[in-house]
Structure formats: C-alpha cells, structure tokens
C-alpha cells in the first residue's frame, strides 16, 4: 500500500505541471494540446478516486516525503480522507470545465487562432489546487496557493480587455495582500516554533504562549479568509468574478474559494483545536451567510447574483468548522463537496444562457423556458439543489449542519441555525427571482440604456454547441448523484471529521511514529 | 536567543511603507508597495532564522556554528514568487495605461451605478413607486 502511495500521491501535482510544460512546447498545435490536457486531467481523476478508496478503506492517512527528505526537514505530501475527497470533487469539476471550455473554443472559431497560453495555465491551476490539498507543510501550502493564484490572474485577465483588466486589478491586489499576510504568518510561526511542518506544529504550538498563539491564529485566518471570501473580506469577489468568461468563473467559483475553506478547516482542526477564535468564527459565519444572500437578492444580473450566493454559502462551511464538533465538521466537509459541484454547474449554465440570449441581465432575459426547455431543466435542477429543496444534497448538507448546531445547543449555535434557515429561504427567493424573470415571464422592454449586463460571450444566438451542453449535463447528473450516494458520502465525511478531531492519525503518519520508513 | 533589533526595525519600516503605498489608487504605487511589503516580510524570515553563523555547508562548518538554512530556502522561494507577481502587476499596469491612459484602480461598474442612482435620488429598478414597496413578481403586474 505504501509503495502505491509513493507513486500516486505526487501524481495530481506533478502530472499537470509536466503536461503544462508539454502543452506550452506544443503551443502551435491546438489539437495536441487538447489531447494532452484532457488525458492528464483524466489520469488525475482516476488517481484521486483510487486515493480516496485507499485512504477510506486503508489506514486513513498516507504520506510521502518528497525527495526522500525526512518529514521534519523536507516537504511531505499527505493524503487523508478530507484531502482526497476534496481532490476527487475538484478534479472531476476541473475536467468537466475543461471539456466545456474546449467546446466553446471550437464553437467560437478559435481553431485558427488559438490562445496558446490557455492550456498550460489551466493545467498549472489544477496542479496548484492539488498541491494545496495535499501539502503537509505550511510553506508548501503557500507555494500551492501562489501557483493557483498566478494561474488564476492570467485566466481572469486573458485577452486584456478593459473590463477584465479592471476586474483583474482588484482581484490581483487583494490576492497579493492575502498572500503577504499568509507569508508573515509563516515567518512568525517559524520564529515561535522552529518548524513549518503541520504535523510537527500541531505538537509544538501547544507550548507556545496563548497570546502569541492567538496572533498566529488570527493572521492565518485573515489570510485564508480573504481567499475563501468570508464576509468582511469578501468584497472583492462579486467585483472580479462576473467579468471573466463563463468556464473561468465556473472553475474559480467552484475551486478557489474552497481551497481557502480547506485551509481554514486544516488550521482549525490540526493547528489550533479549540482555539480562542472559534467564537469569532461563529459570528463571521453568520455575517457571511446573511450579508451574502442579502447582496444576492438585490442583484439584477445572474452572474453577480450567483457570485453573491457563493459568498453566502461559504458561511455554511465556516459555520460547520466553527462548531468544532464531529457533526459540524462532517457537515462542512459534505457541504464543500456538494457546493463545488453545484456552484460550478450553475456558472456553466449561466454561460450557456449568455451564449443563447446574449446577456445575463435579468432585465434583458425572458421566457427562456419556452424558448429553450433544455437550458431551463439544466438550470432548474442545480438551482433547486443550491436552495436546498428536500430530495437534493443541498438539503441534506444543510440539514446535517443545522442538526450539528442544535446538538451543540448554546444560544450562539441556535442563532446560527436560525441564520442558516433564513439564508436557505432567501437563496430560494433569489433563485425564484431568476427563474421568474429569466425563464418564465415575457422579456420586459428595456427601461434604460444601462441594461447591457456583463456579457462576455463572443458569439450570440448561434445554436448551443453539444460539446458545451454535455459536460454541463454531466455535472448536473453528478450533482444529483451526490444525493443518491449521500449515505456513503456522509460516511466518508463522518470518518474524515473523526480523523480531523483525533489528529493522531495525521501527525503519526507524517512523522513516521507508527509506520516505519520503507525501503530506505 | 535575543532577536536582532535592527532587522526587526527595518522590516517594520518596510512593511509600514508597503501598506501605506498599497492603499494608493494608482497601480504603479501599489506595485512599489508590494515590493516593499515583500522585502519587509523576507527580512522577517531572516529574523526567524536566529543567530547569524557560518554558511550551512557540510564540511565547512559544524552544526553548532552554522546558521539555520531553512528560512533562507523559504526566503529564496518567496523572492522568486514575489518577482513573478511583480512582473505580472507591471504588465497589468502597462495594459491599464494602454487602455485608459492612466493606471488608476477603477470602481466597479455596479458600484458606480449605485452611486449615480444615489446622487440622482433614484430608486432601484425593482422598486414600485405606486405601491411603495419592492415588487419582485413583475409577472403579476402588467
């Protein structure tokens, strides 16, 4: 088993990087580029699924010391149930979005003049996300973040039009600042403990002065909070996401914020369990949920509305983490898996709408359900899933979180449960508004000249290409599938939460307390 | 171990200047701010490495006289990353200047729209002036 881990664990990081180099070298051959990137990401999906099965049925945690350096000096890559689950969902979503964007590129007639930088950047983004999920070392986590951020800067400003440069500027400056905060935190942590290995840190941070711990803890939370778009630090997100092309927004919305959430989960459980900031996190979660959804209700552009629901639903995950119980963590993990799929699907469908109708402004859209029933179905299913209508996974995730909140039973937890219910209802209201105005009623006469919306599609009104519909439909099916396999998935997230609370599987595996070094 | 006060002061000044510049509206100043901030944090890593010593090369020095190589490796990585980011922001500032003739960070379109509406004392598009309430279900009214 450990021999397998040696090969499999670095694969999701190394393979996309290698493929990125290849696609860059083959910049003039779009067909070869396409084959390489699809193959690489498919292999990553297979590797991720294998690793999830291995960790869930095996001992739960595997680690590999990169380059053979022992864990305290070198950089370990660690796969436990949480990180492999995240890896599976993220790699499936990345692959689907890649297929979608390829179909869009072909349909837009980019065959003759391909943007040669797209494939390498996209692959690097995928490598960065995997690296962040698998890293067992704070500094390597920082590097993973920087890899994915650098790729995301380029994807966001691809083409360099006026709107994208404006949106990119905000995004780049805010992200740079968050990276600086994170880097400062790493420097201070090294000063206080003499290590950046997370397993080692979880043992050594106990002996650090509580006040110093609080400073380190808050610095890390601020850094990750900006990346995860948690409420007071979320203003950048609705400004920058909607201008990007649909597939880019979709992959950002699904993955980038979740990497921040993942980092928060790790910090809270591994480094600072029962830390002094959990009260703060509770209130932050409430503010994120409520303020985010109120923002969504006020929007009249589908992309902006979805960006605000994205911010709002990050609050649910932070809520689960802040509770700190097994139930809360399990709910948060389940919700992350569900939300990555659903949010990405919704942005992809919005891309299809934009392509079909030429706009995403609610004032300009109308009676889409009559004109294109297929799009209506594709939108309806994940939208109801997001709002949390009973049979769907959104409902199950929210139910799990609310139950965990009730189980904790303090008045703060009850306030948050109430906030969660209100947010869920308001999400339904926001979605119903989109449904009413874009799909149901007749298009309105344009009230003023401002209605252009945030259209980024290059070709409007042409037949929706099949290659774009199929990956979207596949993701809709995956979203529904999460409902079907909710039982086993909750089983995995329960065991992941147990591992997170227990901490010993993680630390002993990384530091080789239990498993002796093989073959050295 | 007593930390090196000079390094801490230098780092503090760099970070303070960097943050002040980051709050500016022109992208070029933001860029300089990022450079200063990055270097301030890099010096912080040097403080973290503890007492100065000989070069950490096996055979040239014993473990007791070496300086800690790990923060230096981290600083090196951080320098490379910051350099890449600075290059990117520089390109972004240039592109912004190309398009607009300046490189000021602009307001969001939606924000500007809200401000304009507020100045004109206009209500939002979904506000119904007759019933004095927000009507979202426009389908019911003609």
Q: Could you name the CATH class of chain B? A: Mainly Alpha
Overall SS class of chain A: mainly alpha
CATH-derived architecture of chain B: Orthogonal Bundle
Task: State the helix count of chain A.
Answer: 21
Main sheet strand line-up of chain A: 1-2
**Helix content percent band of chain B:** 55-70%
Poorly predicted residue ranges of chain A: 447-453, 514-520
- Examine the coordinates and then state which fold CATH places here, giving the name of the CATH topology of chain B: Helix Hairpins
- Shape estimate of chain A: globular
Largest sheet of chain A: 2 strands, antiparallel
Task: Explain the overall architecture.
The complex is a heterodimer of chains A (520) and B (142). Chain A is mainly α. Chain A has one domain. In chain A, 74% of the residues lie in helices and 2% in strands. Chain A has a two-stranded antiparallel sheet. In chain A, helix 6 (138-156) packs antiparallel against helix 7 (162-193), helix 12 (278-298) packs parallel to helix 18 and helix 14 runs antiparallel to helix 19. The longest helix of chain A has 32 residues, at 162-193. The two termini of chain A are 16 Å apart. Chain B is mainly alpha-helical and 142 residues long. Chain B has one domain: Orthogonal Bundle (Helix Hairpins). Chain B has helices spanning 5-22, 27-48, 69-100, 109-120, and strands spanning 127-128, 133-134. A two-stranded antiparallel sheet of chain B has the order 1-2. In chain B, a hairpin with a 4-residue loop joins strand 1 and strand 2 (133-134). The N and C termini of chain B lie far apart (78 Å).
């Amino acid at each position: 088993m450990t021999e397998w881990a040696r090969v499999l664990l670095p694969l999701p990081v190394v393979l996309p990087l290698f493929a990125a180099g290849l696609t860059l070298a083959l910049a003039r051959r779009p067909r070869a580029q396409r084959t390489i990137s699809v193959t690489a990401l498919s292999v990553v999906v297979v590797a991720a699924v294998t690793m999830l099965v291995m960790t869930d049925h095996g001992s739960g945690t595997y680690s590999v010391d990169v380059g053979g350096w022992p864990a305290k000096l070198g950089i370990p890559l660690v796969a436990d149930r949480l990180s492999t689950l995240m890896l599976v969902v993220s790699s499936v979503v990345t692959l689907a979005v890649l297929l979608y964007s390829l179909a869009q590129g072909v349909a837009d007639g980019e065959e003759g003049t391909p943007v040669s930088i797209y494939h390498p950047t996209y692959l690097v983004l995928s490598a960065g996300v995997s690296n962040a999920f698998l890293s067992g070392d704070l500094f390597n986590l920082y590097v993973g973040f920087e890899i994915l951020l650098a790729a995301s800067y380029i994807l966001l400003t691809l083409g360099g039009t006026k709107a994208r440069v404006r949106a990119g500027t905000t995004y780049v400056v805010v992200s740079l600042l968050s990276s600086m905060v994170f880097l400062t935190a790493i420097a201070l942590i090294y000063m206080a403990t003499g290590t950046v290995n997370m397993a080692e840190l979880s043992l050594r941070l106990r002996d650090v002065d509580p006040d110093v711990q609080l400073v380190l803890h808050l610095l890390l939370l601020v850094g990750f909070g900006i990346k995860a778009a948690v409420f007071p630090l979320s203003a950048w997100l609705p400004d920058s996401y909607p201008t990007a092309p649909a597939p880019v927004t979709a992959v950002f919305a699904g993955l980038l914020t979740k990497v921040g959430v993942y980092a928060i989960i790790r910090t809270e459980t591994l480094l600072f369990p029962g830390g002094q900031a959990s009260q703060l996190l509770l209130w932050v979660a409430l503010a994120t949920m409520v303020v985010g959804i109120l923002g969504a209700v006020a929007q009249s552009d589908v992309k902006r509305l979805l960006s605000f629901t994205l911010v709002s639903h990050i609050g649910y995950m932070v809520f689960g983490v802040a509770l700190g119980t097994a139930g809360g963590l399990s709910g948060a993990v389940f919700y992350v898996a569900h939300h990555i799929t659903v949010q990405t699907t919704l942005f992809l469908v919005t891309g299809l709408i934009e392509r079909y109708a030429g706009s995403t402004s609610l004032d300009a859209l109308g009676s889409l359900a009559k004109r294109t029933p297929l799009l209506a179905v594709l939108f309806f299913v994940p939208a109801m899933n997001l709002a949390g209508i009973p049979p769907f996974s959104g409902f199950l995730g929210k139910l799990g979180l609310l139950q965990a909140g009730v189980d904790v039973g303090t008045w703060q937890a009850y306030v948050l449960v109430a906030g969660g219910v209100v947010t869920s209802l308001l999400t339904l209201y926001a979605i119903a508004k989109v449904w009413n105005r874009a799909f149901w009623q007749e298009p309105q006469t344009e009230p003023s000249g401002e209605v252009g919306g945030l259209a980024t599609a290059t070709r409007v009104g042409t037949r929706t290409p099949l290659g774009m519909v199929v990956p979207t439909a596949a993701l809709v099916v995956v979203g529904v599938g999460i409902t079907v396999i909710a039982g086993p998935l909750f089983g995995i997230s329960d065991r992941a939460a147990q591992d997170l609370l227990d901490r010993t599987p993680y630390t002993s595996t990384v530091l080789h307390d239990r498993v002796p070094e093989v073959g050295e | 171990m007593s930390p090196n006060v000079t390094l801490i002061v230098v780092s503090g000044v760099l970070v303070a200047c960097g943050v002040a510049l980051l709050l500016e509206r022109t992208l070029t100043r933001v860029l300089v701010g990022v450079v200063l901030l990055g270097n301030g944090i890099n010096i912080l890593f040097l403080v973290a490495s503890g007492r100065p010593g000989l070069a950490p090369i096996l055979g040239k020095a014993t473990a007791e006289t070496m300086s800690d190589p790990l923060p230096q490796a981290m600083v090196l990585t951080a320098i490379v990353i910051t350099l890449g980011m600075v290059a990117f922001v520089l390109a972004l500032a240039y592109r912004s200047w190309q398009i607009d003739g300046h490189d000021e960070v602009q307001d969001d379109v939606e924000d500007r729209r809200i401000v304009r509406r507020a100045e004109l004392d206009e209500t939002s598009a979904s506000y119904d002036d007759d019933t004095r309430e927000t009507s979202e279900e426009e389908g019911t009214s003609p």
